[in-house]
Amino acid sequence: MTVASVEFHQHHRDVTGGWLRPAVFGIMDGLVSNAALIAGVAGGGGSTRTIVLTGFAGLVAGACSMASGEYTSVASQTELTRAEIARERRELELHPDEERAELAAIYVARGLDETLARQVADQLSGDPRQVWRVHVREEMGVDPDDLPSPWVAAGSSFAAFSLGALVPMLPFLLGFGNLAAALAFTGVALFLAGAGVARMTEVPAWFGGLRQLGLAAAAAAVTYGIGHLIGANLA
């Protein structure tokens, strides 16, 4: 079988799309921050009306903040990457021999003998439309044709945070709102979300669920305690 006759089958999941990290971060942050926010207000003696208003304010403010932060961070990273790509393309135009030798040295470091490494570098350098892509992948570790989208990151973050932050509010919207019910809803959602993410990353589901639940419980306990202390001093 020749190399040209080998069929390539896509069997890996998308790990560079730029949506998973902000989505996971968003839903976890929404669950934890809004549950903790509600716990703090409840600990300070806030009324049901105050808790609901605070929860919705936290949902909207947090979702907008997450989306704008993700957009800015991903856009800045992409702009920096594109600037470095442009720099690499200029280097290839001005110093092609040095860049070819640099590419060969990379392949030597990866295990090829020097003669073969030079042959590979020479052959790859023969196509000016592709050689800069090779250099970017090898030197910078990024795919120039698959840079993350700031809009995807912002949209994923906004939607995920909103969904997560809504969960602690559900008991109040359904008419049996109290802090215990809100924390119970949030705890179940956190465990399921943590377990789901863990399965995607091939970590044991029970570990991912309990890990996220433990972190959220600590955050809620701290904010409830602080809210209780402040509320008692203000009374």
Report how far apart the termini are.
Answer: 82 Å
- Strand residues, percent: under 5%
Shape field: elongated
Number of helices: 9
Largest sheet: none
Quaternary state reads single chain
pLDDT averaged over residues: 85
Query: Topology as H/E string?
Result: HHHHHHHHH
**Are there runs of 5+ residues with pLDDT below 50, and where?**
1-9
Quantity of strands, as a count: 0
Structure characterization notes:
There is one protein chain. This protein is mostly helical. The chain has a domain at about 20-90 and about 145-230. It contains nine helices and no strands. It has helices at about 20-45, 50-95, 95-110, 115-125, 130-140, 150-165, 170-175, 180-200, 205-235. Helix 1 packs antiparallel against helix 8. The longest helix is centred in the N-terminal third of the chain and has 47 residues, at about 50-95. Residues about 1-10 have low confidence and may be disordered.
Topology:
Elements: H1 20-43, H2 48-94, H3 96-109, H4 114-124, H5 128-140, H6 150-166, H7 170-173, H8 179-200, H9 205-234
Give structural attributes:
mainly alpha, 235 residues
Short structural description:
The protein is mostly helical and 235 residues long. Helices cover 77% and strands 0% of the residues.
